[in-house]
Amino acid sequence: MSESVSVHPVPPRLQNGSEVPYIGPNIEAYKKAHAESIGPNADKWWGKMARETLHWDIPFHTVKSGGFEHGDVSWFPDGYVNASYNCVDRWAHRTPDKTAIIYEGDEPGQHLEISYSQLLREVSRVANVLKSWGVQPGDTVSIYLPMTWQSVAAFLACARIGAVHAVVFAGFSSESLRDRVNDCKSRVVITSDEGRRGGKTVNIKKIVDAALQDCPGVEHVLVLQRTGGEVSWTAGRDKWWHEETAKVSNFCPHALLPAEHPLFILYTSGSTGKPKGIVHTTGGYLLNAALTLKYVFDVHENDRFGCMADMGWITGHTYIVYGPLANGIATTVFESTPVYPTPARFWDVIDTHKLTHFYTAPTAVRLLRRHGEHWVEKADLSTLRVIGSVGEPINPEAWHWLNDHVGRKQAAIVDTFFQTETGTIVVAPFPGAIECKPGAATVPFLGMEAALLDPVTGKELEGNDVEGVLAFKGSWPSIARTVWQDHNRWLDAYLKPYPGYYFTGDGAHRDQDGYIWIKGRVDDVINVSGHRLSTSEIESALILHDGVAEAAVIGANDEITGQSVHAFVTLKPDFEHNGEAGLVKELAVQVRATIGPFATPKKIYLVPDLPKTRSGKIMRRIMRKVVAGEADQLGDLSTLADPSIVEVIKDKVAAAH
Ligand code: WT7
C-alpha cells in the first residue's frame, strides 16, 4: 500500500501565510512538543496548559489522580472552573463586540452574527429561567433543538449553573428521545416549535410531545420559537423561551464548580445493550476542547471557524460550541444541508462569512464530489487555512478532491480521529508541521500516548509497520469518566478489555513512518455517514414488529455513506402479510420510529432462516461476504447448521441488487 500513497508537504498558507503556526515548521517540532508532553513530563505539561488556557475560579494544586487501572481518572480535582465563564464572559469583558456566533439559517441570506456580549446576555437569561425552575448543580437538562444559535446559549446556560446537559440529536425519534430523557431523569427539556432544514419544516415539538407522554419526571419544557408554526401546548408544563427570558435578569453569576463536575451526558451506541450515557467533566473536557482546536486547526485570534456537524453529536459539542468559544473566536451554526438550495451551499457559506476553517465529514465530501467541481469553482475560498475531516476514514479520492477544489492546494487538510468517549481529537496531523498522507489520521495529540495492541494477547506492538487495535495509555483530561449511573458498563466496555489502557474499539495500522491509519471498528458497530449505529439496536427495533421472528443486521460498504445498513429478517411461521414490498416498508418504518431516520436499513431481505452455527450463533460473516459480493470467499462453513441457507441468501441478495 505504501508505494501508492502520496505525501503532501505543509501547504503554502501554513508556511508563509499571515499567521505563524504554533507547531512547525516540520515533524521535528511536533516530535519535540509531543515528547515534552508525555511520560514523566505529562503532569507538569498538562498543569501548565490548564493554567494558560483556562480561567480557574480556584486554582488546582493536583494535576491528575487515579488512572485507567482502577477506573478512577480525575484531572485538576481540587480546582474550580466554569465552562460558561470560560467560553463567554472572558471574551465579553475584553472584546464585547467581537463575533461569537455566525448563524447561517436554512435559507441563503438568512444569517446574523451574535457578539460575545449578546451571547452572555442570552446565556444568562436562560440560566436564570432554569434557576427559577429550581434547577440545581448536578441536575440534568435534556436538550432537543435544531441548529439555531440559541442552542449554543442553551448548552452554556446549563454549564453556567452546573446543570448537566444531555443533548439529543434532533434527528432521533420520539422513542429514542423518551428513553434518553428517562435514563438521565431530566425534569427540564429545552426544545423548539419547529425546525427548518433543506427547505423543509421539521416538527420538533410534536416529537417532544410524543416522547414526553411517557416521561413522568418532566415538569418544564422551554420552547424556542424558531418558525412561529402552530404547535400543541401542555399548559403548566410548556413555556415559551422568549416569554420566560423576558421575565428574568440579563446577568446570571456563574456557579463555582469543581473541575470534575459533570458538564454533559451524550448518548452513544455500542455493540451491546441500550445506548450509553457517556459522561464528560468540566475542566478536563474544556481544556482539551480548547487545545485541540488551537493546535490541530492552528486557530488564531481573528479566525472564523466553520464546523458543519450537528450540535447533537460530539463533533458539534466540541467543535461548534466549546472549542471555538473557549478560544474566543467566531464559530458557525449552520442550519441547512450541503445541497440546499444547491450543492454550492458550503462554498457560498465559506465565501460569504470569510471562514478560515471548514470542518466536515467524508460522506458530505463524497456527495459533493459526485455533484461535480463546477459548484465549487465560483466561490472565493482564499480565506481557508485548514480543512478538517471527521467521522470515518477519508478515502484518498475524497481527500484529493478537498485538496484540489476546496483548498486549491493552498490550505491544509487534517483527518481527525476521535470518539464521543474521547471527547476531543486524539489522533490528527498538525497542519504547520506534518507532511500529510491522504487517509492517515497521522499522530497522537500532545499529551496522549496511542498504542497498538495485539487483539488476542493484549501485548503492545512496538515499532512501526504494525497493525492491531487502537488503545491509549495513561489518561488525558477529556477522556470520559463513566457511563451515566452505570460505572461497571464503562469499565467493562472500555477499561477491562486491555487492563491499563483505554480501548477505542477501532483497528489501526502504524506505517513505516509512524503514521497511524484508522481501519474501522472491530466490534458490531456500523458507521453510516459518520453516525455510529449498533447492529444489535437495529435488530431489536426490527424484532418489535409483530411479524418478525429474528433479525441480523450487518454493515456493507457504500460509496456515499461509507457504510450502509443491511438487515436479514425471518418471519414468524403463522404471520400473514400482503406481499413482501409492503412488509419491507413497514419494517423500515419500524426502525425509523424506534431509532431515527438515519438508522433506516438500505436493504431488508426476508429470508426463511439465518445462517447459524449448530450451537445457534448467527454467522454474520456469511451475510457480510455475500452482500460485499465476495460469496466466493465465505471461508469455513463446516460449523453451519444448514448449509443450504447460503444459496437462499445469495439469491435474495442478487435479486435485490
Ligand atoms: C467512531 C466514533 C468523533 C467524530 C464523530 C463520530 C470513527 C471517527 C474518524 C476518522 C476513521 C473515524 C471511528 C470511531 N471515526 N473519526 N478520522 N478516521 N474513523 O463520533 O459517533 O463517537 O464515533 O467514528 O470508528 O470509533 P462517534
UniProtKB/TrEMBL annotation:
Q: Does the keyword Repeat apply?
A: no
EC number of this enzyme: 6.2.1.1
One cellular component term (GO) for this entry is:
cytosol
The AMP-dependent synthetase/ligase domain covers 89-475
> Catalysed reaction per UniProt?
acetate + ATP + CoA = acetyl-CoA + AMP + diphosphate
GO terms, molecular function: acetate-CoA ligase activity; AMP binding; ATP binding
Q: Does the record carry Transmembrane helix as a key word?
A: no
Task: List the InterPro entries.
Answer: Ac_CoA_lig, ACAS_N, AMP-bd_C, AMP-bd_C_sf, AMP-binding_CS, AMP-dep_synth/lig_dom, ANL_N_sf
Q: Which top class of enzyme applies to this chain?
A: ligase
**Gene3D superfamilies referenced in this protein's UniProt entry, alphabetically:** 3.30.300.30, N-terminal domain of ligase-like
For this protein, the record's SUPFAM superfamilies field holds: Acetyl-CoA synthetase-like
Please give the biological process terms from Gene Ontology that the record holds: acetyl-CoA biosynthetic process from acetate
Residue ranges occupied by any Acetyl-coenzyme A synthetase N-terminal domain in the UniProt entry: 30-87
The residues covered by the AMP-binding enzyme C-terminal domain are: 537-617
For this UniProt record, the keywords arranged alphabetically read as follows:
ATP-binding, Ligase, Nucleotide-binding
Per the database entry, which stretches of residues form a coiled coil?
A: none
Report the family membership: Belongs to the ATP-dependent AMP-binding enzyme family.
Name it.
Acetyl-coenzyme A synthetase
Q: Which species does this protein come from?
A: Phanerochaete sordida
